[in-house]
Design brief:
By secondary structure, the chain is largely without helices or strands. It has a domain of 67 residues. The longest helix is centred in the N-terminal third of the chain and has 6 residues. Helices cover 6% and strands 8% of the residues. Strands 1-2 form a two-stranded antiparallel sheet.
């Protein structure tokens, strides 16, 4: 197995260390990352650098809906700040028929 040891040189490593990321995440570690228990198996081997991009459906936090139209970030009301999706209950349909 190869890797960077000591911060500089890339070489063959003699032993693995406890937080080596070729090891699957434990339930406790996934819980600390905020992953929902039903998504643990899906993210057992997700890289540490990718954990911040785990889908909102798989996190305890869930979606972070915008509370107002935010043109600076290009968000509509109900659209998630993290993933950009508009969750089904927040979808708003507009009636384009002219009022009398």
């Amino acid at each position: 197995m190869c890797g960077i040891e000591g911060g500089y040189e890339y070489r063959e490593l003699i032993e693995e260390w406890p937080r080596h990321r070729w090891r699957d995440w434990t339930d406790v570690e996934l819980d600390r990352w905020g992953i929902r228990p039903e998504a643990f198996d899906k993210h057992r081997r997700t890289l540490e650098t990718h954990m911040q991009w785990v889908g909102c459906e798989d996190t305890k936090r869930g979606h972070i809906p915008a509370t107002k139209d935010d043109y600076e970030f290009g968000l509509r009301i109900g659209q998630c700040h993290a993933c950009g999706k508009v969750p089904e209950p927040a979808v708003q349909e507009y009636d384009d028929t002219p009022s009398e």
